[in-house]
Design a protein that fits this description.
By secondary structure, this protein is mainly alpha-helical. It has 2 domains: 1-87, no CATH class; 92-131. Helix content is 58%, strand content 5%. The chain has 6 helices and 2 strands. The longest helix is centred in the last third of the chain and has 20 residues, at 90-109. It binds zinc ion (ZN).
């Protein structure tokens, strides 16, 4: 008799300030699945063991979403935000509205620091682009 191993689901990246419940790439609540791995852990396991082997133990919906729109915050915040905004359910949409309003309040309270950070990050980007 073969024992069924629960499939690994892949964690959906969130913006660092998120208060929404963590989810898998396939849209399930993190607490609702037996096993979950980060995108980095998934990528490392594919590199180590090969796609064919990992395909037996990974949720295919998570796999597909990760390979087509794997946006980690650090590498691609625009993509993370796009997915965060477009895939939110109604409860999450209300939370995201609160988060965006809170971010706007913080920017308003610390406008000079915010502008300096944006200018600083622009300078870093210019240096990266010139190398
Ligand atoms: Zn999944």
């Amino acid at each position: 008799m073969m024992t069924e191993t629960p499939l690994n689901h892949i964690e959906r990246p969130l913006p660092p300030w998120s208060h929404c419940a963590p989810k898998t790439q396939c849209g399930r609540a993190r607490n609702d699945v037996a096993a979950i791995v980060s995108i980095a852990e998934f990528a490392a396991s594919v590199k180590r063991d090969g796609q064919q082997r990992i395909a037996y133990t990974t949720c295919m919906t998570c796999w597909s979403a990760t390979t087509s729109q794997a946006y980690e915050w650090d590498q691609e915040p625009n993509g993370t935000m796009m997915r965060y905004l477009t895939s939110a359910r109604q409860d999450d949409k209300r939370m995201i509205q609160r988060e965006l309003r809170a971010l706007a309040c913080l920017v308003d309270a610390y406008r000079d620091e915010f502008d300096a950070l944006v200018i600083g990050l622009t300078a870093v980007r210019d240096i990266e682009d010139s190398t």
